[in-house]
Structures are given as C-alpha cells and as structure tokens.
Amino acid sequence: MNIYDIAEMAGVSIATVSRVVNGSDKVSETTRQKVLNVIDKAGYTPNVFAQGLGLNTMHTVGILVPDISDIYMSSAVFYLEGCLHKYGYDCILSCSGFETKQKEQHIHMLLDKHIDALILVGSTYAGSGRDHAKTDYIRDAAEKVPVFIINGAVEGKNIYSSVCDDRRAVYVVTRKLIGKGRRHILFLTDSHSYSSNEKMAGYEKALNDEGLPVEGNLKIHVKNDIHYVRDLLLKSEAICFDSVICTNDSIAVGVVKFAKERGLSIPREMDIVGYNNSVLAVSCEPEISSIDNHTSEICDGTIENVISVLQGDSNVRKHFTVPCTLVKRSTTDF
Amino acid sequence: MNIYDIAEMAGVSIATVSRVVNGSDKVSETTRQKVLNVIDKAGYTPNVFAQGLGLNTMHTVGILVPDISDIYMSSAVFYLEGCLHKYGYDCILSCSGFETKQKEQHIHMLLDKHIDALILVGSTYAGSGRDHAKTDYIRDAAEKVPVFIINGAVEGKNIYSSVCDDRRAVYVVTRKLIGKGRRHILFLTDSHSYSSNEKMAGYEKALNDEGLPVEGNLKIHVKNDIHYVRDLLLKSEAICFDSVICTNDSIAVGVVKFAKERGLSIPREMDIVGYNNSVLAVSCEPEISSIDNHTSEICDGTIENVISVLQGDSNVRKHFTVPCTLVKRSTTDF
DNA sequence: ATGAAAGCGCTAACAA
DNA sequence: TTGTTAGCGCTTTCAT
C-alpha cells in the first residue's frame, strides 16, 4: 500500500496525493476530499523512510541521559517526551552513563539516525563548566544538529542551554542557615558537574559574604547511595557540623538516617536540605525540605526552543535560567 | 558524502561499497581494505533513511511505557535500553499514560515509524487479564511487528509475554503473615492491571487455604501517593487490620507513615510489605520489606527474545515467568 | 569478484 | 489546480 495505489484508487496523480497528505493548499476541496476518503478507507500511512529520504528528517529528536533510572532524569524525560509528542515528534532515548567515551559513542549513534535535534539531560554533559575542551564533543555534535542542554551551560554555535539558578538557591539557603546561627554547614555532593559546581559556588559565596571560612573538610563528595552516606557520616567522627546541604534528595535521606541513628533532633540540632524535591523527600521521616529546580519548566522551555529552532525561528534564547525554590518541610525551620 | 563519493574515491562501484559496508563475503580482501580505508578517511556513514527504505528497517524498537517518571518503569527502561544498545538497536520511547485511547494512539505513532519490535512495559497493557477484548489493540499491533510484554500476559500470534510470579509471591507472604498470627491483612493496590489481579489472587488463595474469610473491606484501591494513602488510613477508623500488603513501595511508605502517626510499633503491632524493592523501600524508617520482581531478569530475558525473533529464530518462548523474592527488612519479622 | 541498473516510496521542481 | 519526472542514497538481482 503506497502512494501509487492511493493515486490510482483516487484517480489522481501521486503528486496530488502527496499534496493532500502534506496539507498543501494547492488542491481543490473536491479532490482533497476524494483523496482523503480513499486514504481513510485504505488505511494508508506514508512510508516514513521514504519521507525521511526525501526530506532528510523523520521528526525524531534524540534524548541522551546518563541514567534513566535516576528519579530526576526520568521525570525530565517524562516532560520532554510529553511536549515533543504534542508537536508530533518522537524521541529516541539513549542512556550513556557518565563516562565521556560512552557519551560520545551514544551521541554518534544518535546522530547517525539523523535526529532533528539532540537534547542532553543533566549537567553531567556540561562538564565541570571550567574545562572548555571537555565539552568539545558537544560542539562537534552541534555541527550536525541543534543541541539543547537541560540544566547545563555550554557555549557554542547551534547550542542552546538552560539552567536552574542553583547557585542562587544554595546561596540563599546557606545564608538562611547562617542567619539562624549555624556555623558548620556540611555540603554533600555526588558529582563534579556544572550544576554541582554552581551549587558549591553558591555555598562558598554565602560563607564568604557572611565572613565565615570555607572549610575544606565540610565539602565532601559522596556516592549517590542512601546507606553509603549514612555510614560515611557515622564513621566520620572527626568532622563536626550542625547542618547539611545535599545536591540531591537521596543523599539527604542518608543524612536523615545518620541523624536519627545519632539521636539528633531535626531540625533543632541539625538542619537538612535536599535537592530536586523528588518523592524521596517525602518518603522519609521527618520529611525533607528540598530545593525544587522546576524541571517541568526547564523542559517545557527547552521544547519550545527546539520547535522554534526546527521551524527556523531566529528569535530563540541561547540560554535561559529558571529560578529554584526551597520547598519547606520538616528538616528546616526557617 | 554518499555511497557514490566513496565508490569514486575507492575506484569501485557502489555495489562493492555496499557489500563492504554490509560485510558481504563476496569481496576480495584487497578491495575490502581499499574501500574500508576510504570510508574511514572520509568518515562516511550510510544514510539510515535510504537503508531503511531498501531494507524496511532502521534497527529501532519501540518502547511504550505508561509513565517513565515512575521509579519501577524507568528502571525497566534502563535495562531494556542497555541491552538493546548492545545489539545495535536504538529505542524510540513513548509515554502513553493509562488510558486505552492514548495507548492506541501512541502505538500507532510507533508503528508508523516502522519499528522492528514493540515492547510494552508494565502490566497495564495486559488489561485485567480477564477481558479478552480489552487487549485486542495489542493483537492488532502484533499483525505488524512482534510485540513483547514486560510483566503481563496476553495471548496471541506474534505476542511474547513475561511475568513475574506475583501470585505466588503474595501467596507465600500472606501465608507467612497468617502463620505468624495475623488475621486481618489489608491489601492495598493502585491498579486493576493483570499484575495487580495476580497479586490479589495470591492473597485470596492464601486466605482460603488457611480457612480464613476474604473480607471485602480489606481489599482497597488507592492512589499511588504516599500522603493520600496515609490520610485515607487515618480516616478509616472503621476497618481494623494488623498487617498490610501493598502492590508498590510508594503505598507501603504511606502505610508506614500511617502506622507511625498512630504510634503503632512496626512490625510488632503491624507488618508491612512493599513491592518492587525500589529505593523508596530503604528511604523510610523502618526500612520496608519489599517483594522484588527481578526487573532486570525480565528485561534481559525479553531482549534475548526480541533479538531471537528478529533474527528469525523459531525457538522462542512465547511466555516466561520469573520468580519474585521477598527482600526482608524491618517492617516484617518472619 | 565486480559492475550496471532497477527499484524502495516519497517530495518537489517544472510543465501544462 | 493537476500531472510528469527527476532525484533522495541505498540494496540487490542479474550480467559479466
């Protein structure tokens, strides 16, 4: 069942069928209806490969994610897919892990499929935000298709990025903590990504602005694992702290478990702040105050950009920022 | 940069290039190397649309999921994508929601892309397992491509299904509960899916086998929402129960919150069993004993099937079952 | 072992 | 408004 069959059945040429299928206005209403009827009866769908060959697009965008089983990224993909679907785009999903080699390999595989755009989810793709060379592979990809980064900033032609204002969010929270009287604020992260660095920058700036020292042993890199974090803190009797800022909720849950094990009263003796405002924040007791990075807004905004760029719109923001907000629960009292 | 360019540069015909690219053995080693060199230098990749047009495949499989932000499904997709990638397949991901209309629409969109196979993740696609007509849309899809169901059983030509032995797992746990002396076991589910029904069947059979009545008000459908569950139970003073089996961990967390609010000692005064053994089970306090349905095994097994079917292998299991196991934590003591 | 040429199903430029 | 036809880049049959 191809365009020739439909043309014959409708008594028109394939060009006319093509026009009808593609909604051209250069077809009389009569023939349009005639063709539409035939198409409907025959249940005809254009062959996407042939369309792709002619137009060099199959209306797909590639979504690259380090780990879709991560609760934050899966919800991002959920929003992205939903928006894209509305605009008639399908998405090819690929999980690259966190290693550069693999990231590049996955990007190649996606580019080979002639995707219309590439979306990189998570700041891991933005490198540390310091070493320019480490993001060269993104600029390479951008030679072929527009690249959109969710929560990461990379400079380059044909690259569009979005971030949430992590630096500011952590800055504000840290100052609140200090204002309340905290003096030993632990900063726990599981990553060296752009986003993680931004958060840390906010943390350090707040300390500086308040005239407090930035203590090296209060900035710790941990595994993204509840029990690992709990056990690490239980073992680390040397470091003393009275509050904790975590770069995701999973880490924060580990801290809550630590505090309970130690018999600490939360938040009286220890404030705990999580990140991403995921279901993990409300699954433990006390429920965790968590910084919400408004994933849905970032994703919506990004897809708008994607569509604009694909439609040749020139007024597209190369970079936009979404504010973060602290969702207050029971592990803080400010 | 196309096959003609390569042919010219290598001084051979496009047919030869094609043979080399596709690993045909009807090429002399000399020319193979010559062509390979040119391809390498030029950085040539075949146009997948043209390949697709000729071969009617682009080596993609469609993955349909009701909600990728769900922690269980995102980890399933994680395994699936990983396996498929190994075999050189890309996956097109689509999130259909739980409504039949939408499911069908999404399946159509996937089929239009000429996917090589369709994977349906989650028992929501298998209907209740009772009403045959409700799964007709799956059989329709199976006319076009082989369909594989993760955790659901549907009969039909070209349909391959996999389930975990939910019925047995719940049966065993329920009997353990009864053996321990529990007499009012609450069963909480958020779905009417095949899997949910299986779990309930195991629950009921255990009660029957132990000579206990199946009380209607102890089988409750709830929303998949921690606070909703907690509040519902707090309000429901009329129903009395001494233990709870939940069809996912999120519900179980709600029950834990309820029990703590009521000041109940867990598991002395109340046993709680979760499902899926997700991170939610270990994020609360006490940590939840949860039935693990071995998602990775199901996914691995399914992808093996996918590859076999696509390679024309005839010895493929139409249906396989993976056992579930209870991961014991602190909300049970047997 | 290699090449010539006919499709695969569609879009779009050009003609009518 | 409609039709004719030349690609799009590849695979594959059939010669050689």
Summarize the SSE layout with pairings.
The structure is a homodimer of 334-residue chains.
Chain A lengths: L2 H8 L3 H8 L7 H14 L5 H8 L4 E6 L5 H16 L3 E6 L4 H13 L4 E5 L14 H7 L4 E4 L8 E6 L1 H14 L5 E5 L4 H16 L9 E3 L4 H10 L7 E4 L2 H13 L9 E5 L3 H5 L5 E4 L2 H16 L8 E4 L2 E3 L7
Parallel strand pairs in A: 1-2, 1-3, 3-4, 4-5, 5-11, 6-7, 6-8, 8-9, 9-10
Antiparallel strand pairs in A: 10-12
The structure holds a DNA duplex (16 and 16 nucleotides).
Overview features:
homodimer; 334 residues; alpha/beta; 434 Repressor (Amino-terminal Domain); Rossmann fold; 3 domains; six-stranded parallel β-sheet; six-stranded mixed β-sheet; 13 helices; 44% helix; elongated; DNA-binding
Please provide a written account of the structure.
The structure is a homodimer of 334-residue chains. Chain A is an alpha/beta fold. Chain A has three domains: 49 residues, lambda repressor-like DNA-binding domains (434 Repressor (Amino-terminal Domain), Orthogonal Bundle), CATH 1.10.260; 133 residues, Response regulator (Rossmann fold, 3-Layer(aba) Sandwich); 129 residues, Rossmann fold (3-Layer(aba) Sandwich). Helices cover 44% and strands 16% of the residues of chain A. The first copy, chain A, is built from 13 helices and twelve strands. Chain A has a six-stranded parallel sheet with strand order 2-1-3-4-5-11, sandwiched between helices. In chain A, helix 5 links the parallel strand 1 and strand 2. In chain A, helix 8 runs parallel beside helix 9. Chain A starts with a helix and ends in a 7-residue tail after the last strand. The relative contact order of chain A is 0.11. The interface between A and B is large, with 47 and 47 residues. The first copy, chain A, binds a DNA duplex (16 and 16 nucleotides) through helix 2 and helix 4.
